[in-house]
User: Which sequence fits this backbone?
């Protein structure tokens, strides 16, 4: 392409062209898979603090 033609780009020419051949379902599935792989596992829940045993009387 000659230099004088490439210099005269209109705003319509500078828009990205849509990608064809990928369904929205496949695109969403790949995003969900990427999120599942890149998200670290949840930290385990902290154990409840052990309460001291209360003093109780033995039955007579």
Assistant:
């Amino acid at each position: 392409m000659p230099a004088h033609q490439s210099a005269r780009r209109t705003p319509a020419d500078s828009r990205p062209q849509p990608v064809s051949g990928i369904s929205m379902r496949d695109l969403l599935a790949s995003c969900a898979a990427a999120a599942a792989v890149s998200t670290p596992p949840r930290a385990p829940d902290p154990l409840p603090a052990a309460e001291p045993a209360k003093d109780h009387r033995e039955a007579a």
